[in-house]
């Protein structure tokens, strides 16, 4: 009897944590999604039963086909709109991923951000997560960002936001928390099966947050063959010249971004521009968004616990 009570106490706590996280993004959830994002593995039936109980108690609210911490019907409308727009953008994103895969030294491309969660508003960018060959990240990144500058000429810059790069020597994500685990679970593989499989295997730590991570798709449905131009470029730079050029481009980029940070430049989303430039990675500074999300998340969990403390045994 005690074990059963303990199970439902833990299940209830886990369910509320799921809602606490996604509420930060005004994102209501279906019962199936709540089950998918739980921190402990269990059957869907008890999850459904406990969510219904929380709705009866007034701690959760049904908004159409979704459930939320807030009694706000607009959340369902926003999410449905976002899903339709995301599905349209995904057609463009998959073509873009196949194109980006043809850049020299690219070994894997994933769709990330709000689009990978199938919820994108009218201003959403198409974000990509890029894996490159070891010690050639900065050559690949520079070529891709030179291409992006050209997209401004035709107003397609929002279709190519390559904001996170790692190479095959740094496949494991160092920041291990619910934010990065959620991003790993929702990344959409788009091109480069070998590199993608190794990447997802290297980050199996995310299973500690989400048991469903072990069952996630680790390969893209289709991956184009590397073009002759890509193979030739890689052959030409597979030497000491390539080593020197990669280091030079990393140092050049680091200097340019340091100037941007000192000026306090902002992104188009109003977030302070900041980039961490390592030999094997290029990524946004986690302090400028990731840490803010985590701070708000733990604050919300604390608030929910304080308002409804667990039943004492």
Strand content bin: 5-15%
Biggest β-sheet strands, sense, barrel: 6 strands, mixed
Q: How many beta-strand runs?
A: 8
The number of helical segments is 11
Mean pLDDT score, rounded?
Answer: 90
Percent in helix: 40-55%
| Shape annotation | elongated
Rounded radius of gyration (Å):
21 Å
Placed side by side, the strands forming the largest sheet appear as 6-3-4-5-8-7
Which stretches are low in confidence, meaning pLDDT under 50 for 5 or more residues running? Answer: none
What structural category arises from helix and sheet content?
alpha+beta
SSE string: HHHEEHEHEHEHEHHHEEH
Terminal-residue CA separation: 11 Å
How many independent structural domains? 2
How does this structure look, described?
- This protein is α+β, with helices and mostly antiparallel strands and 313 residues long.
- The protein folds into two domains: 2-66; 79-292, no CATH class.
- Helices cover 50% and strands 12% of the residues.
- The protein contains eleven helices and eight strands.
- The protein has a six-stranded mixed sheet, sandwiched between helices. A two-stranded antiparallel sheet has the order 1-2.
- The longest helix is centred in the N-terminal third of the chain and has 27 residues, at 74-100.
- It is elongated, with a radius of gyration of 21 Å.
- The mean pLDDT is 90.
């Amino acid at each position: 009897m005690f074990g059963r009570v303990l199970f439902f106490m833990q299940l209830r706590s886990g369910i509320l944590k799921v809602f606490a996280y996604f509420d930060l993004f005004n994102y209501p959830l279906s019962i199936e999604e709540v089950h998918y994002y739980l921190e402990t593995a269990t059957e869907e039936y008890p999850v459904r039963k406990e969510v219904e109980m929380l709705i009866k108690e007034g701690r959760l609210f049904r908004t159409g086909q979704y459930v939320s911490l807030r009694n706000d019907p607009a959340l369902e409308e926003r999410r449905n709109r976002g899903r339709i727009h995301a599905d349209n953008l995904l057609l463009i994103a998959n073509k873009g991923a196949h194109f980006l895969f043809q850049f020299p030294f690219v070994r894997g491309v994933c769709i990330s951000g709000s689009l990978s969660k199938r919820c994108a508003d009218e201003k959403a960018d198409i974000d990509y997560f890029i894996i490159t060959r070891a010690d050639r990240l900065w050559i690949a990144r520079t070529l891709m960002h030179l291409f992006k500058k050209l997209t401004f000429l035709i107003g397609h810059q929002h279709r190519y936001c390559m904001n996170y790069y790692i190479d095959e020597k740094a496949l494991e994500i160092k920041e291990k928390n619910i934010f990065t685990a959620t991003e790993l679970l929702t990344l959409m593989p788009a091109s480069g099966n070998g590199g993608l499989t190794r990447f997802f295997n290297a980050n199996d730590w995310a299973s500690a947050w989400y048991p469903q991570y072990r069952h996630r798709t680790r390969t893209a449905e289709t991956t184009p063959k590397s073009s002759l131009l890509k193979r030739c470029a890689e052959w030409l730079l597979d030497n000491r010249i390539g080593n020197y050029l990669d280091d030079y481009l990393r140092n050049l980029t680091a200097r340019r971004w340091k100037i941007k940070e000192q000026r306090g430049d902002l992104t188009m989303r109003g977030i302070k521009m900041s980039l961490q430039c390592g030999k094997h990675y290029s990524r946004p500074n986690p302090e400028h968004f990731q840490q803010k999300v985590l701070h708000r998340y733990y604050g919300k969990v604390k608030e929910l616990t304080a308002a409804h403390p667990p039943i004492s045994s």
